[in-house]
Amino acid sequence: MLNSLLIALSITLMYSAPLTLAAIGGVISERSGVVNIGIEGMMSLGALTGAVVGYFSHSAWLGLMCAGLAGGALALLHAIASISFRADQTVSGIAINLIGPGFAMFLSRYFFEGASVTYPVPEKLPKFINFSYLKGTPFANFNIDVSVVLAFMVVVVTWFVLYKTKWGLRIRALGEHPAAVDTLGVSVYRSRYACVIISGILAGIGGGTVTLAVISQFNPMAISGQGFIALAAVIFGKWKPWGAYAACLLFGFSQALVVMLGDGTVRIPSTILSMIPYVLTIFILIIFVGRSSAPRASGVPYEKGAR
Amino acid sequence: MTKNIIKFLKTNFMCTFIAVFLGFMVACAILLITGYSPSLSMAVMFNAVFSRAKFIVNVIIKSTPIILTGLSVTLAFKSGLFNMGAEGQFIVSTIVAAILGIKCNFHPFIQIPMILCAGVLAGAFMGGIVGWLKAKYGIHEVITSIMFNWIALYMCNFVANSETFHKPESDGTFPINRSGQTLLFYDWKFSQEGRDYLQAHPILNDIILKTDFNLNFLIAVAMAILVWVIIYKTKKGYEFRASGLNPDAAQNAGIDVTKNIFYTMLISGALSGLAGVLSLTGSSTPVLHVLSVFENYGFNGLSVALIAGASPVGCIFAGLMFSALIYAGQTLQSKIGTPSDIVNIMIGTIVFFVALVRIIPIWVNRYLQKEERKNAQ
């Protein structure tokens, strides 16, 4: 019993870490008033960059940093379109979702002689807690990736910055009433640029943790929809860091259920089990969440002097 | 003169054209940087689409489902909804169509309409749930759509793997019965008479024998016109557009916005459903495959709708272009080894520039105003 509980906890945390990082990125961007539907694309490019840099440099940490940079670079494109060019943010985000995975696959084939799967990284991210030396006890299977700790720290820091600092107040105000922030002498454009790029960096790191901590290589299915699930978590969590974190933990937990129930003890087809996270989300949304209210100015391009 | 040219720049057509052109340029630049030859790649892509009648017909046939999903997304766009669930609606429709197509075997005059109706209804049902959840509980349609896409994917795998439908030693189900297929001349082209006739007419041979020749494309064109009529010529369509442009004003004018959300998603889902069922019945291998990732018919519809600027008739052309690019991308990889993913980058860049070029009319207007002021002085 204790054994299964600990395994479930490990799996939950492992799966939720990349989602959390990406979802917090989404929270930051949307609170500043820019809808970021392109998380999926940023995660994909991050995942590829992490795997490639990790493979060639033999350093998982360097890979993770470059993954963040790659996500940030893609986010810069989104920022230019949606802030400077006042483009439709959803359209731009969808474009990012096409460019990101496309570019990731292109680069994978470019670096690995036409293969859509990269070679495994020689060194994965270290474990934060590892009890594998306690062989024979239930704790032997319990371990926590360093990405889990990283994700948790990002949640705490984001919460603190958003709700306890001057910058956070500004960011939240940007998403509700940018003109008011502008009259106080804060540059709306510059602040939104910063938030979108940070959001991309977090999404990139999230993608990087998939290839550097969960699986050790990039393949076309490495991300497959996790960015969208992170997006769902943002809305699910009502655009709040802790809410988004809780949503990601729920996704992670239902993923753990799939893994644990799929070991053959329960006679349910794996395809039905795999639906659990998605069905669960819809029901929870119906029962608990209801009308979710996005930041008021989210998705509206800011035009200086417009009424 | 220059004024007219500048005014021409701000037309929708020109903006889209500029976006497509820039998309090609960026793709060429990426090819150049990574050491592939852009001119050779473009030539290969052009040949892959236009060099033989077979290729052109294939592009047209393959464009049918994405035109329809594009229309589905367009209709939802018009009433301010974002139908990301076209993918799931598409899949559910193929599931229902496959089950009926395998289990029933009536005369084609009954079988085909039955399968089509069932597929359309399945798609409408899926879209309807999303609309209902949004109207009744206020749950964002994008989240529910994403969740239903995955549920549909696993449902498809459940059916494709089930004992009743799974064809041993394959990655899918048994094919649907011949009576449910919408292929034209299918029996004739493999008969002795048909072979002899086609042998004598090489171009027809190319078009009919070498492709999954069907007339589904015409259905897609008819649907594009129908969607245009619904949106611009009917009372419901007016309500849809009003709800999309300003829900509060529409509500004040006596339009039931929540009800319209449901209806829009219902019709939108039906269109994606039609795409799904036609892609199954119009294929010479009409089986339900086990899916490891999405086949992207719905997501491609999203791009088609965006490139078309949410114009129903534009969807036809955007769908054809999209289909040609995908088709050319496959040839590119097999012929000269350039990664086919360059096509995805290209499409993404085009969509990106479609978002950017919306600023051109603003610039043009500003420029024209400046000129006017200068002339007045």
Describe the structure.
The complex is a heterodimer of chains A (307) and B (377). With 307 residues, chain A is an all-alpha fold. A two-stranded antiparallel sheet of chain A has the order 1-2. In chain A, helix 1 crosses helix 9 and helix 10 runs antiparallel to helix 12. With 377 residues, chain B is mainly alpha-helical. Chain B has one domain. Chain B is 77% helix and 0% strand. At the A-B interface, helix 3, helix 4, helix 9, helix 11 and helix 12 of A face helix 7, helix 15 and helix 17 of B.
Summarize this entry quickly.
The complex is a heterodimer of chains A (307) and B (377). Chain A has helices spanning 2-31, 39-57, 60-84, 89-111, 146-164, 166-176, 178-183, 188-214, 226-236, 241-261, 270-274, 276-289; strands at residues 127-130, 143-145. Chain A is mainly alpha-helical and 307 residues long.
Task: Give the uncertain stretches of chain A in residue-range form.
Answer: none
Going by helix content, strand content and strand pairing, the class of chain B is mainly alpha
Q: What is the domain total for the residues of chain B?
A: 1
> Which residues of chain B sit in consecutive blocks of at least 5 with pLDDT less than 50?
none
Distance separating the two termini of chain B:
21 Å
- Largest beta sheet of chain A, briefly? 2 strands, antiparallel
Secondary structure: number of strands of chain B: 0
Q: What's the helix-strand series of chain A?
A: HHHHEEHHHHHHHH
Number of helices of chain B: 18
Number of helices of chain A: 12
The portion of residues assigned to helices of chain B is over 70%
* Approximate strand percentage of chain A: under 5%
Mean pLDDT of chain B: 89
Structural class of chain A: mainly alpha
